[in-house]
Amino acid sequence: MQKMPTPLREQLAEFSASQQVPFFVYDLDGLSKHIASLASDEIKLWFAVKANPLSRVIQTLDKQGMNFDVASTGELEQVLAQGIGSDRILNTGPAKSRQQLSHFLQRGVNTFVVESVNQLALLNELSQSHNKRPQVLLRVQLRFEQGDDNPLGGNSLTPFGLGAQEWSEICLADYPEVDVVGLHIFQWGNMLDADKLISLWQAMIAPLTALAQALDFELKVLDLGGGLGIPYHESEQQLLWPYLAGALSEIKRQAKVNELWLELGRFAVGEYGYYVSEVIDRKTNYEQELLVLQGGINHLLRPAITDQPFPVSLLRDSAESAQSFHIHGPLCTSLDKLGELPLPKDVSVGDQLVFAQCGAYGFTEAMPFFLCHELPAEVVFSQGRFEVVRQAQPASSYLC
Ligand SMILES: Cc1ncc(COP(=O)(O)O)c(C=O)c1O
User: Fold this and answer.
1) Radius of gyration over every alpha carbon of the chain, rounded to an integer in angstroms
2) I need a labelling partner for 5 at 20 to 30 A (CA). Which of 25, 132, 333, 340 fits?
3) Does the Cβ of 186 fall within 6 Å of ligand 1?
């Protein structure tokens, strides 16, 4: 697992002493270098904005030439507000209302991943009335022998796209106002086993090319979505991008497509965010050590959904050996637990803890309103300096 860069580590304790906690901090210098290292002539990269829609994150990715996958009007407007052209935006998502699709067409978006026959018919109808001919990818759900369950569906039934059989029953000539150029598929999230990921991708080629043939269109674009994981535990290995990129080039050749696309969320930004929270209480109960923090799943929901904690460390130095602590947040539910994790024995009330790997699915995935606590601040670390881009907000800012 990647370590927090030394300049950030050294300055964070001092910054955090002057800053109201909890807050998220994003290392934009590290993020920028990481995205630059992913550039490839063979693969077109889109950023799945749902992973982190912060303006400064989007601007950083924009500077590195990334394109943007948006799944709501809110995400679309946030990307456009950063000065990004609509030709670098694509729209995914299972719920595309008439109002939303009209808005996207009006705003100049020309690439849509279509997830149902109704969506296709609606987009066809609206394209005619807007005098547009957008390019479309049909989202496909396949079943695999080696599959298992996963938040993105894995082998189970989900609202994301349709099976190859279901798609093969349509006639593309019925949708002349859209240009069907490709297929989209994405069923497994947070994969860390590169060979398994590659073998899943490879297994998709035959059924997808067969579907394009059955529908009688030229498969120009294959979009494999996201799903590239990051380690949340030190025993887990990082994915090696050059290895994956090499396999993807081969898949592109085998599928005979002009363009291979990925929509990266977690793998793009996950390792470049941290969440800092303060210890409000420490107690021993039934011979177990418990910490209660100022912020928990109201700011970082993922551990409650996946039962997988974010790695944690004590912000100040300590020479004490580590022991296990049950780490809870402030909500009145036992679900509000950030994990059972090792920390130095002398951790005490007033100490600050830093959770790593929080750059994706953090601030906007949480449930911040329950119990009316504060919304956390968001801070960026750029060119060696901290900048608060959003101050913490009291409950009065959202209650009425
Ligand atoms: C359509 C789509 N593309 C891309 C992503 C990003 O996935 P990941 O964070 O696994 O890269 C998601 C995440 O849910 C998604 O729904």
Assistant:
1) 22
2) 340
3) yes
In the prediction, which pLDDT does 178 show?
98
Q: What is the pLDDT of residue 151?
A: 55
Tell me the mean pLDDT in the region 97-106: 98
- Residue 48 Cβ contacting ligand 1 at under 6 Å: yes
Which residue blocks in the chain are alpha helix, DSSP H?
6-17, 28-38, 55-63, 73-80, 98-106, 117-129, 164-168, 194-215, 241-255, 266-269, 302-306
Question: Which of 139, 152, 308 has most ligand 1 atoms within 8 Å of CB, for mutation?
Answer: 152
**Cβ contacts of 179 within 8 Å, gap of 6 or more:** 133, 134, 135, 136
Residues 93-119, mean pLDDT to the nearest whole number = 97
pLDDT interval class at 48 (50, 70, 90)? very high
Which residue, by CA, sits nearest to atom 10 of ligand 1?
227
- What is the average pLDDT value for the chain, to the nearest integer? 95
For the chain, strand residue ranges (E) read: 23-27, 43-48, 67-70, 89-91, 111-114, 135-141, 162-163, 179-184, 221-223, 259-264, 273-285, 288-293, 312-314, 322-328, 337-344, 352-355, 377-382, 385-390
Rounded distance, CA 57 to CA 71, Å? 17
Identify the band that residue 146 occupies on the pLDDT scale cut at 50, 70 and 90. low
Q: Is the CB of 271 under 6 A from ligand 1?
A: no
pLDDT in tens, 159-202: 899 999 999 999 999 999 999 999 999 988 899 999 999 999 99
* Beta-carbon-side half-sphere exposure of residue 5 (alpha carbons within 13 Å): 18
Atom 5 of ligand 1: nearest residue by CA position: 226
For residues 310-327, average pLDDT: 97
**Which residue ranges form the domains of the chain, and what is each CATH number?**
39-264 (3.20.20.10), 271-397 (2.40.37.10)
